[in-house]
Amino acid sequence: MFSTVLPALVCAGALALLPCPPVQTPSTPGLVLPTPVPAVQDFCAGADGNLYILELSQAIYEYDQTGRLVRTVPLDLADSGLTASRLTTDPDGNFYLVDGRNGLILKAGASGLLHRSALDPAAVAAEPGLYTELSAPAEDQLCITAFSPDDTAYRTYTLDVSGAQAVCTGQVDGTPLGGGLFAHSALQYNADGALTNGACLTIWQDGQPLDRFSLYTAENCTLFGLKVLGVDTQGRYLLEVFEFLPDGNTVRTSLVRIDRNGGALCTAPSPLLDSDKLRFTGGQTYVLRQADGRTSLFPLSALAPIWQETDRFTLAAPGDLLGR
User: Does the pTM of the predicted model rise above 0.85?
Assistant: First the structure.
């Protein structure tokens, strides 16, 4: 997923927000943890479809697709002065965690910690707290997507973490969507350097541009952020779009679905909560939600938003100026 501006940073000021959506019950139950994990930090899906949940620096919990707890992998990192706040797994079942406090990549197995590699901030990203995506396509190969506040861009770094020092072996602008797809976007600014109502999106596959769009909201609104939440089974791109309404103070958040051929646009009010954790993993966008005293993990599609064709957003060829 990608976003051109971090909404959390923008929304932290004194803004008027549209009413938060009510807590929706997924149309399909997904995975409801029988015992809520108290300090969920991250989650991912394995090659077998099982789901893994990281409890801050303590343990990894593996659940099958029925919600049954398969096993617990103890970490107990605090005793070693280590932390872990991000999680992914490779096709062989090894786990990789980010220790942002000590600048380390930790590798773990069923028996616990196996290996650690030091991060070089000059070669990867200055602040592990800005890492947004983590994946491991093969053993000891890690992909880290990080946000750069200097130019509000996302970049994905490929690392070899087999040695004592993690070695950066490649860099791509954008964030991975799976299947060799990467998404890259740029907000549009006017001649005075102010945000407009548009953004340019490019989808890359294996290093080559696959799809390009310019997305515009209404001319009297301002588009200040968007995320690509994933690609559905029909190849449509699912976006979350953040706008300032004409009063310049009220924020509206919408889901937008774009057909691959640049055809019909559909939108829906975003059913997501600020506290939701989203990951595009295992070819699907998952939502981890802690609400009403329980922890639930389910596909985003299970929220079943009511999609409607819309004229609120417009698609154009890259560079076409349809807004202000």
Answer: no
